[in-house]
Request: fold
Amino acid sequence: MSISSINYSSSVLGAQIRNINQQLTDLSTQLATGKLSQNYSGMGTNEGFAIAGRSQLSNIAAYTDTITNVNVNINLANTALQSLTTIRNTVQTGSASTAQDLNVNGQTVAQNTAASQFGSMVGVLNTQSGNRYLFSGTAFNTQSVANAGDIINGTTTQAGFKTVMAERQAADLGANGMGRLVQTQPTPSSVRVSEDVAGSPFGMKIAAVSSTLTGATVTGPSGSPVSFSVDLNGLNPNDGDKLSVQFTLPDGTTGQVDLTASTATPTPIGSFAIDATTPGNTATNLNTALNTAITKLANTSLVAASAITAGDNFFNTASSAIGAPVNNQAAPPAPISGATALSGASPSNSISPGFGAGDTITVNGTTLTFVNSGATGNQLNVGDSIQTLMSKIDQITGTSKPSTVHGGSITINTDDAASLNITTSNSGALNALGFGSTPVTATQPPLRVGSSPASSATTLVNGSANTVKWYTGNDGPGSPRSTAMARVDDSVTVQYGAQANEDAIRQQLQAIAVFGTFSTSPTSQYAGGQVSALSLRVTQSLTKQPGQQHIEDIQTDLAMAQNTMKDAGTRQTQAKAQLQSIIDQAESASPDQVASELLSLQNALQASYQVTSKLAQLSLVKFL
Reply:
């Protein structure tokens, strides 16, 4: 028989002591770290909630970084937009001033300021945030706007705005300096004024004629090209009788010539002399006075309107499809107008061939159907006017610039040249509208005078191949704001993109470029009138108009994006606190509870050691 010795390490009591020691170690670690365990297995059943909470906290941290970065971009963009507002106010103040003193270069101080501010505006539009150009849309790695010098002066291979404006002025003035009008005296007692070419986009267009000239016969405006005539019929008008002629200028404004019959000596400005003894001389005086008045209007208001229109041709990205000039059935020499019907029996003011019931026109995927009567929705009556058709097309394209009929030519405008696509089931009728082939697509600007010499040109053509493209960023369809998007919460995104070719920015850049680039001869008798007429138009262009986009509208959009991010950030801050509380409850050890357990274990360990000590001193004699 053998008796095993009492071994401490193998005894039940020893195992308990080791267990107590391990618990003491764990509790000491908990007290030092504040955590229940250093590994997931020791965390307990609630650790799943903590893991999910940490994942959400990681997402919130990523959203916070995104919000910070987007706010930096928006703040920089807003600073740039505010600079544009300051530039606009500076140039507008100068253009509205009455000072017309010209320097040796044929410009006013206000124009020199505008030229300088144009360069500043180009610099602002090329603002970067890191490597991102803020006004390039989705093409954020591309410079937003071409260099200011290239835009104005061109490059070795491409014409700049200065060239485009000079060509347009020559085309609008014509070789005789009368705005593409031809004046003759068919008989000794009559005067006739005619547009030089039917359907030409250049020069002044005769809009209306009114007369109180006693005994005179006024004919027109009518015909193709449009003309009017005044025949005094060998008689003298009365003193104070008046002839008024209204013209439409290239920028859509009007100019008017008023001539008053007068017996005063010398003949007052704006009048023509009545020759009491020779009525034929009165007709000659009327002819001379009309020539002088038209030439003055052409060399002042027309020149200013031409500069504004050249700016539109060069800068405006709202593209158009232009049909050939067309005449109506009722009066073959008369061009069609917005009132011309889309169908009708000859003779009538309608196109031929016209549209019939069942015919369709499809615009950008939306189909318009012709019916005999009672049209609703996307339907047209066969007898509706061209203007009605254009209004329907404009509704579909969403153009900011309504389509027009001018000189018998239809211009369909669109803000997105790439998307315009018009087809029809009746190609003959579409051809009768001036569009010879389908699909009808938009011409990309810039537009240039179509032939040389410019003074006799009759068309505008696409100048993309040989003209500087001022905007070099993204110009695809869709809202500029949608060109930069960021997710700032699980179900929240913000749009904060911007493009330098947005209407508000483009219109301002265009107006400042026109004002700062235009120059005239300081010694010209018309110099003051040209600068005055231009200043008036530029001031109007820089004045905020109802229904147009403003710089402040872009700032408002960006501010709304920031408010959305601010709200998301507030929610995320609250969520972070709640998630951290869940994690802490699942993983944190209470210092008071740990301290209490430590004290309890220390007491138990001390007792265990005392018992063990006594057992270690036990002998067989003492045991017996």
In short: The two ends are 18 Å apart (CA to CA).
